[in-house]
Structure formats: structure tokens, C-alpha cells
Specification:
Order of helices and strands: EHEHEHHEHHEH
Structural class: alpha/beta
Helix content: 25-40%
Oligomer: single chain
Radius of gyration: 17 Å
Number of strands: 5
Largest sheet: 5 strands, parallel
Amino acid sequence: MAFKTFALLSSLATIASAQDTDTGFSPSGQLAGPTIANPLGNPAFPGVTSSGGENWVGFLIDTFNQTRTFSYNFAFSGATLDSSLAAPSSSNVVSVRNQIEQEFIPGLGQKPASVPWTSEDSLFVIFDGINDVLNIDGEPDQTTAQAPFFTLYTTLVNELFDVVFIGVPAIDLTPFVQEQGPNNPAEAKASLELWNQNVQAVASKLKTTQSGVTTFFADMETLFRNIVADPESVGISSAADLWFNTLHPGKVV
């Protein structure tokens, strides 16, 4: 199946390539949408990222892509699934819930003539959890702490079609958690592992309850741990050189 529309509904997130999902795209009709010259739409490629250059979205739709693919990236740096469940980085951050309910559904979700996407040629990617985990990893009962997130998560994804769910990477290994706190690495590890299990359960449920929907889970925790353990596998001499800042690896990863 060849996908031409790539809708990103996500918070700030890092994966094995470990850059923000956010590229600074605005879904406002007053700004340019994706074109052949700039598949991100706005701002100019590679967008505004937290990787020191092109992030994983740019690599995926341009550098390593062999088909024409347009990205509609609703991601907002610093977001959580729902600001009422976990505080975002600032009050103006758009949560994943609002990205879907207030931006995607009333806009692209209506399949306007200017973006005639279908379920057969479109792929949705949700990359959420880092900021949520960093908010709640100190809670002693993680099952109870995460339950309201995944009740909401299950409801939100019912509006989507073919979906890639990207798991939370091994943020317990980042300098932010290891050195700066206040998050304890062991607590962060336990929390993100349960979070990823819950995401996989949401993906499985969506696939079984919605006819014709295909879901994928990308295990970024394992991949990230492997890269940190063996940075030379991605052409980096030491783990210390992985980082663009204390939470985000650079574009080389």
C-alpha cells in the first residue's frame, strides 16, 4: 500500500532517531500546506525541530522515502495526551486530545477538496507518552495512575484509520533523567514500560474492533537501548555524543 498523506497527531517525542516530532507546522488555512517542493508544508523544510536539523519526520517523508508523501504534522512540542491529566510544558501547548478533537477532526478530518485523502492512502502516526511519563513516573501505583490516560487514548484513536503507534523510548537513559532529576531512572523505566504495554493493548483493540483498520507498534525502547549500548552501530564514537540536549538525541541518530 502506498501512503501519500501522513498525519501526525502527537506530543513532543523522541525515538531512536530521537528528535521532536514537532516541525513547527501550522494547520491554519492561511499558511501553505504540503507541496512537492516542501512536503512539510510550513515552515520551510526541515521545519523547526529539536534535533539540530532534520528530524525523524523529515527523514521519513523525504530522505528515506521513495514515494510522494505529504505530512500534516499536528505535533506540539511539550504536549501531553490531555493537559488535565498531565501538565504540558507551558499553558499554550496543544494536547494530543485537542490536536485530534479541535484541529484534525474539524479540519482535515472532514476530507476537504483541497486534501482528498482516503483511508486507503493515508497513515496516522501517534507518538505520545514521554511528557506524560515524566509527569507521573513517581506515582507508586502506575496501573492506577495510567488508567485514565488509556481510557481517553482508546476513545481518541477510534477517529483514525491505519495507525502507527510509536512507543516511548528509553528516556531513563537520557541525561535529563540520569543527572538532572527529579525523575528517578528506575521509576521512569518502570513507568515507560507499562505505558508501552498499554499502548500495544490500545493498538490491538483498535485492530480487532474497527473493521479494515491496520495498526503497527514501533518498539523504540528496545532500539534506543541498543543504540545507547552500542553508539558505534549508528556511527557515533561514544554515548556522550548522542545528545543534542539533555532529553533529545541529535539528528545523526
